[in-house]
Write a structure and sequence with these properties.
The chain is of the alpha+beta class and about 140 residues long. It is about 45% helix and about 20% strand. The chain has a three-stranded antiparallel sheet with strand order 1-2-3, with helices on one face. Helix 1 packs across helix 2. The two termini are about 30 Å apart.
Amino acid sequence: MSSALERLKNLTSKITSYELSRKQNLIKLEKLYSSLGIDEKVDTFVELFGFKAINLSGISLSEDSLGKIQEGKYVQLIAISYDSSAVVKNKNSSLGYFGRSEKVEDDLRYKIINFVLCWRFEKSFRTLEHYNTLIDSLPKDE
């Protein structure tokens, strides 16, 4: 019995930790949304999560080379939207252009990386909630 109680405590602790991280992440993301000038391209903060993906060119997001500049490339935040009724389903939109990767200052580079990672963190929660809702809408197995 105590092992079941211990597992429940651990699970509760993890859930609480994720929710706290998520709340802090949203605050950080909204600040980056303004400070990077993305608010000039995307009218409201909530609209950011309508994008299918947000990618980054010119700076690595790979775990083994996170933040490394890709020489000769340009730093750009690219949002990908999807329209099932359009002839071309995927549409790329620039959220921000920051110049040649070699010339982007470290402070700005880390803000850009943070923005993408924070957006992906929140987007993963929203995707999880979406699929949980879909699963709950199915007929229940009896």
